[in-house]
Automatic annotation (TrEMBL):
GO terms for cellular component: mitochondrion. The keyword Transit peptide applies. It comes from Gadus morhua (Atlantic cod). The keyword Cell cycle does not apply. Keywords: Mitochondrion, Transit peptide. This is Protein preY, mitochondrial. The lineage of its organism: Eukaryota, Metazoa, Chordata, Craniata, Vertebrata. Belongs to the PREY family. It is found in: Mitochondrion.
């Protein structure tokens, strides 16, 4: 079995060497055809706005429930679990480990009629 594998490896190596010998060379490409990027004219507008049309498709990865967009904190909120997913440069970070737990108002009474 070992001899069969070794023979096959040798055969494959020879065929690759033949291909490389006759492969077209990229050294003959003139520099005028090489594309270069220039980032000097790129403007960084700061934080990108969140596209609210994504709310039709995005759900919480934990509960699979719809999310609510909070403009003031720039987060996607899951009311049921009390989790807020951050939005960074217009891209929602839906990783549960990166989500923030929302603090419930513990000072408020459970019944609004109690004073």
């Amino acid at each position: 079995m070992f001899q069969h594998a070794l023979r096959r490896l040798t055969t494959e190596t020879r065929s690759i060497q033949r291909y490389v010998r006759y492969a077209p060379s990229f050294h003959s490409v003139p520099f005028a055809f090489v594309s270069t990027r220039n980032f000097t004219n790129v403007k960084d507008d700061g934080e990108q706005p969140f596209d609210t049309s994504l709310l039709d498709f995005l759900v919480c990865p934990l509960s699979k429930k719809p999310l609510r967009y909070e403009v003031t904190t720039n987060e996607l909120i899951n009311e049921e679990l009390g989790i807020a997913y951050p939005i960074i440069d217009g891209i929602p970070n839906m990783i549960p480990q990166d989500a923030r737990l929302l603090q419930k108002d513990t000072d408020m009474p459970a019944d609004p009629t109690q004073g």
